[in-house]
Amino acid sequence: MRHLRLVKDETSFDFFKHWKLWLGISGVMLMLAMVSFGVRGLNYGIDFMGGTTIRTESAQPVDVGAYRQAIDALGIGDSTISEVFDPSFGPEQNVAMVRIQAQDDEEAVTPETIAAVEAALQQVAPDIRFVSVESVGPKVSGELIQTAFLAVALAIGAVLVYIWLRFEWQFAAGAVLALVHDVLLTIGVFSEVGIRFDLSIIAALLTIVGYSLNDTVVVFDRVRENLIKYKKRPLKEVLNISINETLSRTIMTSLTTLLALFALFALGGDVIRGFVFAMIWGVFVGTYSSIFVASALLLWLGVKRDWSKPDAEAEANGKSKSKGPSAGASV
Amino acid sequence: MLQIDTWKRVLIWALVVAGLVLAAPNLFYSRVESHNDAVKAIEKSGSTAELEAQAGQWPEWLPSDLVNLGLDLRGGAHLLAEVRVADVYQSRMEALWPDVRDALRGARDEVGTIRLQSSEPGTLRVRISKPDGMARALELVRALAQPVVSLTGAGATDLEVSGEGSDIVVQLSEAERQATDERTMRQSLEIIRRRIDEVGTREPTIQRQGSDRILIQVPGIGSATELKDIIGTTAQLTFQPVVSRTTNPNENAGSGNEVLPSLDEDGVYYVLEQAPVVTGEELVDSQPSFDQNGRPAVTFRFNPSGARKFGDYTAENIGSPFAIVLDDEVISAPVIQSHIAGGSGIITGNFSVEESTNLAVLLRAGALPAGLDFLEERTIGPELGQDSIDAGKLATGVAFAAVLIFMALTYGLFGLFANVALILNIGLIMGILSAIGATLTLPGIAGIVLTVGMAVDANVLIFERIREELKSARGPARAIELGYERALSAIIDANLTTIITAVILYVIGSGPVRGFAITLGLGIVTSVFTAIWVTRLLIVIWFERRRPRTLEI
After folding, report:
1. ipTM more than 0.90?
2. What b/e sequence results for A208-247 when a residue is b if at least 16 CB atoms lie within 10 Å of its CB, and e otherwise?
3. Which of A114, A135, A156 is the last residue of a domain?
């Protein structure tokens, strides 16, 4: 049987022909992401802003205008109403999300407000059901946003230390800048598209960090190996060889992960769609950044070329390579 | 050459089998669940034929631990409550006043007359008419202090006493506050747990968070409001002597007294002595019941010391009213008709049957030492949960099938080996989740789907490496060996970094994030195991039988 080959056995793309251009493009994208974040801001969910969301379900079609009228009549401040569509809904399933801003100075959540809103909506659609009601007080939401940023920062910091220990500082710098690049671009996309940004998106962000890193580390691992193998070749060539050698694996893994994620995106329901969207975006941007940001930065920063002497671990590596009968023969 | 020791083979198979056996109950979720419920019911209240039949649905010797479904999948209510720990300081100060009064009275010649002043919550302010005697007064009050009972506060005393002009100001010391907070939290947790257990729901989560918060998650309950009705009231029950009845809420009660509203009658207030005769802490039992007119009521019974106090008080005060006070509202204020011995009684009021049942539950479980503020409330309806489960199942199934087909197409036989490992991997994740009693949430399912995608990564790394080594190595056996050996460093680096993020997510995150971190972290561990050891074992077994000269990969 002929197996499927996504990437030819031997590739020799020159990934670094325009590496400065790619770094430049990444830089511009980062700027755009930050501008979008600054201008539009994130569409924070109640986890971070406080407030209440009510998910309603009714056999009648959702009449956003009527809902709005009913709720505005209560005079409880800002509220947003949006209809939710999903292919998995049945014909009798008309879903809307009602979001009520946190009331000022209320540490705790007022059940009276929620009850009033529910009663008002019941007037509009008698068969309405409230399938989920969630309230977060402003005190907690402030803390949640702090811990969320702390989590992302800590994760990136821990990675920095790990790669520094396992490789060299240039690798750590390249990997971490690539991570920051991925996280910032994701935030930019969220602010541009206006998808609700809640706690689960933070989980997605951290997974992107994990995934992108996974990709970067696999490439770097090969770079380290090849730096020992091809002591005399210029760094640019070594990087190119390494990325070409791991290209088949990079594509395979991205594809399998994407297959799984697209299934979840299409069929997993609307509750986690934002979350899955973030991860899909993360796979693309993570794969891109491990080549065009992390490795390009490595090229820019330069690396220590002599891995055999001072570093004990590199030495062990070098020995195991020379033991193998095939070292260097696969070129 | 390519070989694996027998003990390693046995170990690998044993781990796989153990994981699958642990995962097995989840395939028969509802059956095992009703078995578990029946077993619990039999333990609690004896066996019936029906329960035995339910329990018999699942064999005893098989593991019966299930993956807990999170609120977002099962529906239920979630509350984050903050305990007002400072409440306790105030009641401590109130309880201290009689002691301070008695101590100072003994030295009336030196300190003069003493009067309780109003003060900010958590402090006791007492004015003496002879400021010259302040030193003596402080000495007397300080003598009331007790050593703090805690590890960190050893050596400190519980009261901080200072003089301000002619006032003595008493408050709890810092060490005592900490010790008190700790006790308050532990009591609150315990009482909330008891109240929820009384209602008898399945698998509630009651956890302390941070210094003064409690997270409560109860699956299957209708709404957060319902849950709050059960745990939200402090249920401080006291029996206090009545001084007078009034319609003026701002009535000057006099020191040591307080004005409390009536529960049923609007505009009626009672002036009561602050120090209670007996409190709910001395209750041993309480049941919903009906009074002689057939209206819902609640009976109660005191422990011996409570019964004696209650008996003595009623004997001495026949003809005068006393108030039954629940959470600062007077439920009723009957006139004592006769000496009530035996320490049991009945509370009547305008209760509905449901209210009387709830009140009995609250009284039985004991009072919360302090009030609760609810910072976060979430209700998830069971339909939404079911929809999410269905969507999650479908998505996982499709994702899984797509990855399996893709792997088989790309790597042929080796792809099939990887697929077997992948299926075992899911089994192992479910097995471990069940065994440690973890909770599966919607993001958790996403975590599993993500591991499906990423679990393949280790195998892809290995297989790609084998392809590379095939070009140069001497024969297929050597290529396989080198493939595993040389891919290892990349696999370990890649997975360790992901584990780091999973651990950070777990430590910092809460709720959905944590559920995701658990499945992601576990998934990485099991996927490395299945991808490295299980596939290797499968390949070695295949290799030993076939001895192929070339590899199709």
Report:
1. no
2. bbbbbbbbbbbbbbbbbbbbbbbeeeebeebbbbbbbbbb
3. A135
- Interface A-B, measured as beta-carbon pairs within 8 A, has a size of 250
Q: How many angstroms separate the CA atoms of B114 and B118, rounded?
A: 13
Q: Is B422 on the interface with A (CB under 8 A)?
A: no
* Per-residue buried b or exposed e for B415-427, using 16+ beta carbons within 10 Å of the residue's own CB: bebbbebbebbbb
Pairing state of beta strands B322-326 and B329-332?
antiparallel
Interface touch A132/B378, C-beta < 8 Å: yes
Reported as a single tens digit per residue, the pLDDT across B98-134 is: 788 888 888 888 888 888 888 888 888 888 888 888 8
Interface contact A1-B412, CB threshold 8 A? yes
Q: Residue B24 gets which letter from DSSP? A: G
A248 touches chain B (CB under 8 A): yes
Residues in chain A: 331
| Tally of domains within chain A | 2
Cβ contact A121:A98 at 8 Å: yes
* Model-wide pTM > 0.80: no
**Cα distance between residue B264 and residue B271, in whole Å:** 16
Q: How many Å separate Cα B203 from the centre of its chain? A: 10
B468 closest CB neighbour out of A1, A217, A330: A330
Contact A294, A243 (CB under 8 A): no
Neighbours of A162 (CB within 10 A): 18
> Same domain, yes or no, for A123 and A246?
no
Q: CB B464 to CB A209 under 8 A?
A: no
In terms of domains, do A129 and A149 share one? no
| Secondary element (H or E) of residue B410 | helix B382-435
Chain A residue with minimal CA distance to B467? A9
A102, A138 contact by CB (below 8 A)? yes
Domain holding A209, by residue range, is 17-40+139-306
Other C-beta atoms closer than 10 Å to the C-beta of B143 total 10
Contact A263 B399 (CB under 8 A): yes
> Please, which residues bridge with residue B545 across strands?
none
Per run of 10 residues, the mean pLDDT along chain A (length 331 residues) is 71 85 92 92 85 89 88 82 83 87 67 85 88 85 82 86 88 92 93 86 80 87 89 90 89 87 86 86 92 91 68 44 37 29
**Which residues contact residue B350 at a Cβ distance below 8 angstroms, ignoring those fewer than 6 apart?**
B263, B264
Distance CA B546, CA B550 (A): 11
- Size (chain B), residues: 553
Q: Please spell the DSSP secondary structure of A244-313, one letter per residue.
A: HHHHHHHHHHHHHHHHHHHHHHHHS-GGGHHHHHHHHHHHHHHHHHIIIIIIHHHHHH------SSS-HH
Position A116, amino acid = A
Query: In terms of domains, do A202 and A110 share one?
Result: no
Residue A227 sits in the same domain as residue A292: yes
CA B254 – CA A61 distance, rounded (Å): 63
d(CA B37, CA B32): 9
* Residues 6+ positions from A176 with CB-CB distance below 8 Å: A156, A159, A160, A163
What is the identity of the amino acid at B508?
A: I
- Please give the residue range of the domain that contains residue B137: 86-179
φ, ψ of residue B447 in degrees (nearest 5): -60, -40
Q: Are strands B68-69 and B439-440 parallel, antiparallel or unpaired?
A: parallel
Exposed e or buried b for every residue in B15-25, given b needs 16+ CB within 10 A? bbeebeebbbb
Judgement on whether residues B247 and B292 belong to the same structural domain of the protein: yes
SS3 A59: coil
Q: Are A141 and A74 in contact (CB under 8 A)?
A: no
Q: Confirm or reject contact between A259 and chain B (CB < 8 A).
A: yes
